[in-house]
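Section 3.1: Structural characterization of target chains.
Under the original work plan, the team committed to producing a structural model for every single-chain target entering the pipeline before any wet-lab resources were allocated. The record below documents one such target. The sequence was received from the expression subgroup and is listed exactly as submitted; it comprises 226 residues.
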Amino acid sequence: MPSPSPRRRRAAPTPAPAPSGGPRQAVLDAARVLFVREGLDGLTVRRIAERAGLTTMAVYTHWQGRDGLLGALYDEGVATLAAAQARALSALPPEATPVERVQALCRAFRETAHGAPHHYALMLGGTSHAFHPPAESAARALATLATLEEAVAAALVQALGTSDAARHAATIARQLFAFCHGWVALEQARMLGSQAYGETSSGIAPGAPPDAYTTAIAALLRVPAA
């Protein structure tokens, strides 16, 4: 009887290549995927570690746990909004009026809210009341509102022909932001249809007539009564 042939040893699996950014970046990338897909509910230390292929200790070592990651995701949301503002302004023709610049910035708020809803909610404190962004992160977020305030000031000066009108810019910019956020909330609750703001399935239709959203923004650019 011939002797049995020796059993072949199974080759060890080739380990996945380490991410270029190292374990810290791997943890952040894993957290981002979970957060975008599931919001805060999916962002547990255990699931982040599993997705990153690391231990839970690595999440604490590199990010001090979930709050550190929330801070990074908050910063990403602010950067997304700032980039949307820059795109909105750069897309305007050189002859765009100050009111049109304000409207473009308000569309950027809405674009961010729909394109990155969990990041947007985190920035506004609607995701976790226990999370408070670091002071420098909060300052960057306020800078996006300052961009709107500057545009509002220019629109008021042009409309009223006096620089004194600009002193109302901060108040009106905050009113506009509140309006934008409220509008988005109604859309996300499916209480407003696309016909209300002149959109197609792929975005705002080129050459679309003034819609309810931008028309309301222009209407809000009024100096409050003394």
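The first helix runs from residue 22 to 38.
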